[in-house]
Amino acid sequence: MSSFRSYSKPSVEYGPFDGVLLIDKPAGPTSHDVVNTIRRTFRIDKVGHGGTLDPAATGLLVILLGRGTKLSDHIMGADKVYDGEIRLGTVTDSQDMDGETIAKNPFSEITREQVEEAMGKMCGDIFQTPPMVSAVKIDGVPLYKLARKGQEVERKARLVHIYRFQMSEWNPPLVAVNVACTKGTYIRTLAHDLGQSLGCGACLQSLRRVASGNFNVADAIGFEAALSGSKEELASRVIPYIQVLKT
Predict the structure, then answer these.
(1) Does the domain made of 19-77+213-245 have the CATH classification 1.20.1600.10?
(2) CA-CA distance, 101 to 77, in Å (whole number)?
(3) What is the dihedral of CA 112, 116, 121, 127, to 10 degrees?
(4) In the chain, fewer beta carbons within 10 Å around the N or the C end?
(5) Residue 5 above 80 pLDDT?
(6) CA-to-CA distance for 132 and 93, rounded, in angstroms?
(7) Rounded CA gap, 191 and 86, in Å?
(8) Domain 80-208's class?
């Protein structure tokens, strides 16, 4: 009579750097810069992020460490919340203040009520055309690389959903806003399209991501503070892989 030995699959052992680290990114560095600096400084083999922020943008950057890099799709697909400022009357080629100004239009006749009404009409399912200065790829080439060469190509509009587009402060030409949206939404395109609908043009003045899925910037550590601490201190800030899976 044959005897069979049963084997159980060995349980995975997770280390202190298998999970998620919440960073409050300052203006200046790219998301890739933050990832590379953390990798080099703390000598962590696998480091990624769960959704890019433009260099000028601040706020929540979800850093993926070790086995946490497997959570990329899960975290990138989460809804996002942003605080930002929109500048009425200014149109730029990048749809934010980093680009070249291509038009300056009068805005003094635009009222708060008009802006709030236009913002309300942009909630729900909308189509956005990605800006030329973006990381979207056409035939494998990022749009921003084509833009640097002065090229403009046709881009496919993409469906996104705006849950909330509300004014938090009226100080023309600046309009402070709060936006809750699905992944892949370009807030600078939202600002640009708002300006077009008002007839005066607009661009994004500043942007701060305050939430991504269940993660909030209130729970994040500043980038410089993270770098100035020890590796053990950084490990204490890591949300374990298993805990993230349950959220």
Answers:
(1) no
(2) 33
(3) 90
(4) N
(5) no
(6) 8
(7) 6
(8) alpha beta
Tens digits of residue pLDDT in 145-165? 655 556 565 668 889 999 999
List, for residues 100-132, the tens digit of each pLDDT value: 999 999 999 999 999 999 999 999 999 998 776
| Phi/psi of residue 96, nearest 5 degrees | -140, -175
pLDDT at 28: 94
Contact 177, 187 (CB under 8 A): no
Q: How confident is the model at residue 143 (pLDDT cuts 50, 70, 90)?
A: low
- How far is residue 244's CA from residue 247's CA, in Å, rounded to a whole number? 5
Q: Is the pLDDT of residue 38 over 70?
A: yes
pLDDT digits over 54-67, tens only? 889 999 999 999 99
Among 82, 55, 97, 56, smallest CA distance to 203 is for 97
**Intrachain domains 19-77+213-245 and 80-208 with the same fold:** yes
- Active-site position among 24, 33, 45, 54: 54
Active site (annotated) includes residue 54: yes
3-state secondary structure the chain: CCCCCCCCCCCCCCCCCCEEEEEEECCCCCHHHHHHHHHHHHCCCCEEECCCCCCCCEEEEEEEEHHHHHHHHHHHCCCEEEEEEEEECEEECCCECCCCEEEECCCCCCCHHHHHHHHHHCCEEEEECCCCCCCCEECCEEHHHHHHCCCCCCCCCEEEEEEEEEEEEEECCEEEEEEEECCCCCHHHHHHHHHHHHCCCEEEEEEEEEEECCEEHHHCEEHHHHHHCCHHHHHCCCEEHHHHHCC
